[in-house]
């Protein structure tokens, strides 16, 4: 049976923890809003990029002149996985969800006799994947110093991937990240970067003018300039979704923690009061029985 | 004068979307002025200055670092890799890019084609640096 003093200390400590988790929840909520705004602001670019890409891809056609980034190099032996996770923990199952999804994928590829290479973006995913596939991880990108994810961060990753492809280090590249559905639901997603399938865009009246487009320089050259950009844009979008997802997951995790702490405080307070009452009763009995003995 | 809708979009946000009468774009094969009812054109952009002339005659300038433009008779969309209003432009920003490109060039592990592109990019940046300092 813990003493009164022990109970009091525990209540104080749980209360302090509750304050921290509450503050973390509020910080996560503010950051989530900002992350959502950033994702929202980035949307016009990727949307227009998709439209333009679809137009040009149609104009160029799928003959041999299409860039290799788009058609692939015809092999399917070496797979590169870019796994994006958060830099920090304390966000529920967010990181392990992505890591588990990527791990299943790696196992399947290995079972099929493929070669797998991994690039980790974010510390947490690296920590988890290192346990099993430390020999497969060829690189990791650290974004811990980055306060606000900019396009440059994504561009660096994109350039790295393209550089590896040009040197023939892999044949197929897949991006793993968590799609932000809502605050309480983030879905781990795999997106194939290389070879890049041209996005299918519903034709609007405006877009159907594609047939009479003039290209300067020619369409093929624009396309080969556009595809690397598009890869960076996809990475950028994934990173933004990830940040929003991380903050959403953190918010609900911290909300749960705050509620649990509240329950715990209630329980501890109850047993504290009970014990105090017991002690008072005991003292009273001692006094009364002492008085009777006189 | 006829006006059209001009949009300047960077990956991070939509910078500008308004009715304008005239836009000068630093296309890869030379500067071009876009006005209303321009023939549908798609072009890549080199680092340079975009001059936007609004309907009321107000002129704003933006520095862009590469990208491409999608021009239609009814409007023009400029997808820039990075765009900054000239008033907020800092010569250091360009110098940082020049340094980054130089170090990438020195890396030496790239294909010839990539190298040529980098060299060209470097030249364009250096030229841009001169223009911006003059502003």
From TrEMBL, chain A:
Main localization of the protein?
A: membrane
Keyword Membrane attached: yes
Which residues belong to the signal peptide in this entry?
A: none
A Pfam entry, by short name: ATP-synt
Q: Does the keyword Glycosyltransferase apply?
A: no
Keywords for this protein? ATP synthesis, Cell membrane, CF(1), Hydrogen ion transport, Ion transport, Membrane, Transport
Cell compartment(s), UniProt: Cell membrane; Membrane
Membrane topology qualifier:
Peripheral membrane protein
InterPro entries found in the cross-reference section: ATP_synth_F1_ATPase_gsu (IPR035968), ATP_synth_F1_gsu (IPR000131), ATP_synth_F1_gsu_CS (IPR023632)
Instruction: Spell out the subunit comment.
Output: F-type ATPases have 2 components, CF(1) - the catalytic core - and CF(0) - the membrane proton channel. CF(1) has five subunits: alpha(3), beta(3), gamma(1), delta(1), epsilon(1). CF(0) has three main subunits: a, b and c.
Q: What does this protein do?
A: Produces ATP from ADP in the presence of a proton gradient across the membrane. The gamma chain is believed to be important in regulating ATPase activity and the flow of protons through the CF(0) complex.
Per the record, the similarity remark reads: Belongs to the ATPase gamma chain family.
Q: Which NCBIfam families match?
A: ATPsyn_F1gamma, PRK05621.1-4
Q: What is this protein called?
A: ATP synthase gamma chain
The gene behind this protein is: atpG
TrEMBL record, chain B:
Pfam hit, one = ATP-synt_DE_N
Q: How does it sit in the membrane?
A: Peripheral membrane protein
The residues covered by the ATP synthase F1 complex delta/epsilon subunit N-terminal domain are 4-83
**Keyword Phosphoprotein on entry:** no
Where does the UniProt annotation locate this protein?
A: Cell membrane; Endomembrane system
- Which of UniProt's keywords are assigned here? ATP synthesis, Cell membrane, CF(1), Hydrogen ion transport, Ion transport, Membrane, Transport
Q: Which family does it belong to?
A: Belongs to the ATPase epsilon chain family.
Q: How would you summarize the oligomeric state and partners of this protein?
A: F-type ATPases have 2 components, CF(1) - the catalytic core - and CF(0) - the membrane proton channel. CF(1) has five subunits: alpha(3), beta(3), gamma(1), delta(1), epsilon(1). CF(0) has three main subunits: a, b and c.
What task does this protein carry out? Produces ATP from ADP in the presence of a proton gradient across the membrane.
Instruction: Please report the name of this protein according to its UniProt entry.
Output: ATP synthase epsilon chain
Recorded source organism is: Rhizobium herbae
- List the lineage, top down: Bacteria, Pseudomonadati, Pseudomonadota, Alphaproteobacteria, Hyphomicrobiales
């Amino acid at each position: 049976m813990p003493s009164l003093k022990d109970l009091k200390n525990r209540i104080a400590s749980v209360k302090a923890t509750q304050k921290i988790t509450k503050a973390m929840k509020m910080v996560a909520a503010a950051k989530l809003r900002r992350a959502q705004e950033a994702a929202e602001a980035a949307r016009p670019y990727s949307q227009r990029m998709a439209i333009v890409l679809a137009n040009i891809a149609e104009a160029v056609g799928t003959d041999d002149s299409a860039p290799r980034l788009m058609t692939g190099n015809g092999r399917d032996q070496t797979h590169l996985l870019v796994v994006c996770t958060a830099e920090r923990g304390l966000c529920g199952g967010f990181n392990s969800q992505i890591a588990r999804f990527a791990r299943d994928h790696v196992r399947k590829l290995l079972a099929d006799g493929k070669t797998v290479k991994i690039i980790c973006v974010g510390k947490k995913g690296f920590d988890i994947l290192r346990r099993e596939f430390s020999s497969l991880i060829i690189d990791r990108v650290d974004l811990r110093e980055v306060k606000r994810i900019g396009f440059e961060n994504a561009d660096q990753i994109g350039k790295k991937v393209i550089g590896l492809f040009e040197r023939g280090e892999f044949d197929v590249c897949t991006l793993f990240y968590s799609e932000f559905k809502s605050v309480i639901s983030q879905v781990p997603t795999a997106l194939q970067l290389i070879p890049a399938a041209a996005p299918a865009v519903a034709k609007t009246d405006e877009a159907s003018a594609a047939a009479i487009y003039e290209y300067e320089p020619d369409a093929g050259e624009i396309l080969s300039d556009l595809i690397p950009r598009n890869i960076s844009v996809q990475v950028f979008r994934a990173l933004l979704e990830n940040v929003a997802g991380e903050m959403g997951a953190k918010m609900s995790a911290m909300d749960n923690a705050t509620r649990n702490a509240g329950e715990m405080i209630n329980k501890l307070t109850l047993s504290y009061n009970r014990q105090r009452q017991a002690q008072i009763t005991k003292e009273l009995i001692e006094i009364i029985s002492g008085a009777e003995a006189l | 004068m006829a006006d059209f809708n001009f949009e300047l979009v960077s990956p991070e946000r939509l910078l500008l979307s308004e009715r304008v009468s005239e836009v000068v774009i630093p296309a890869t094969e030379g500067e071009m002025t876009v006005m209303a009812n321009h023939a549908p054109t798609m072009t890549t952009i080199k680092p340079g200055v975009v001059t936007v002339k609004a309907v009321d005659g107000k002129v704003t300038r933006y520095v862009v670092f590469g990208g491409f433009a999608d021009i239609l008779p009814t409007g023009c969309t400029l997808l820039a890799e990075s765009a900054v209003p000239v008033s907020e432009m800092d010569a250091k920003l360009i110098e940082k890019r020049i340094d980054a490109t130089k170090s990438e060039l020195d890396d030496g592990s790239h294909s010839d084609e990539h190298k040529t592109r980098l060299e060209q990019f470097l030249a364009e940046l250096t030229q841009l640096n001169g223009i911006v300092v003059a502003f």
